[in-house]
């Protein structure tokens, strides 16, 4: 028996957000909001042990943008928000983070781990208005690998931090 496989894109999941504690009163400017998945990477999919250098750089270069971080950072800035302050839920908040990224953020930055992968829903990946920056250790760590999506999806080797800065900065200006 031969198994007939659909287009690989058809296997990317979608979330029914009505089942979760979705924040209802967020007033974020979609065009100027950036979600950053900055939690620890435990599985070795990234060279970057901390996203603080990237966060520090971006909040200073783009003071007009809001940056939503999934984990606490030592960086202090008026344009930083935390998902824990936006989401009121008991337990895991991965679906709620995904919802905020989907509905309120034009830009998503993260490493191939945790909340970032959870934000790789079909509606996010196939939104032509999204710019997604996936930082990874090597090609094998890229979630999408050869899947074609409608968003602008940048799969970036994270070994050269200046290259990472350049790609993200250029595309946050567009």
Q: State the strand order across the main sheet.
A: 3-2-1-4-5-6
| Cα-to-Cα separation, first versus last residue | 50 Å
Report the CATH architecture.
3-Layer(aba) Sandwich
Q: Beta-strand percentage?
A: 15-25%
Shape: globular
Low-pLDDT residue intervals, each spanning 5 or more residues: none
CATH class annotation = Alpha Beta
The number of strands is 6
The radius of gyration computed from the alpha-carbon positions, rounded to a whole number of angstroms, is: 16 Å
The total tally of domains equals: 1
Assembly level: single chain
Q: What is the SS-derived class?
A: alpha/beta
Order of helices and strands: EHEEHHEHHEEH
**How much helical structure, as a percent, in the residues?**
25-40%
Give average pLDDT, whole number.
Answer: 88
Total count of helical runs of at least 4 residues: 6
Q: What would you say this structure looks like, in words?
A:
- The chain is of the alpha/beta class.
- It has one domain (28-173): Rossmann fold (3-Layer(aba) Sandwich), CATH 3.40.50.2000.
- 27% of the residues lie in helices and 17% in strands.
- It is built from six helices and six strands, in the order βαββααβααββα.
- The protein has helices at 52-61, 83-86, 94-104, 114-118, 122-125, 161-173; strands at residues 33-37, 66-69, 80-82, 107-111, 131-136, 152-157.
- Helix 1 (52-61) runs parallel beside helix 6 (161-173).
- The model has no long low-confidence stretch (mean pLDDT 88).
């Amino acid at each position: 028996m031969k198994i007939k496989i659909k287009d690989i894109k058809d296997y990317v999941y979608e979330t029914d957000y009505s089942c979760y504690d979705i924040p209802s009163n967020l007033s974020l400017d979609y065009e100027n909001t950036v979600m950053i998945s900055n939690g620890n990477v435990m599985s070795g999919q990234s060279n970057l042990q901390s996203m603080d250098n990237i966060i520090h750089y971006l909040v200073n270069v783009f003071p007009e943008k809001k940056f939503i971080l999934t984990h606490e950072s030592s960086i202090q800035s008026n344009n930083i928000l935390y998902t824990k302050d936006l989401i009121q839920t008991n337990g895991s908040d991965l679906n709620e983070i995904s919802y905020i990224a989907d509905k309120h953020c034009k830009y998503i930055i993260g490493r191939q781990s945790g909340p970032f992968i959870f934000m790789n829903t079909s509606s996010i990946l196939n939104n032509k208005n999204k710019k997604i920056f996936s930082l990874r250790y090597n090609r094998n760590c890229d979630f999408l690998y050869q899947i074609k999506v409608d968003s602008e999806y940048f799969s970036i080797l994270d070994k050269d931090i200046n290259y990472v800065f350049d790609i993200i900065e250029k595309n946050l200006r567009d």
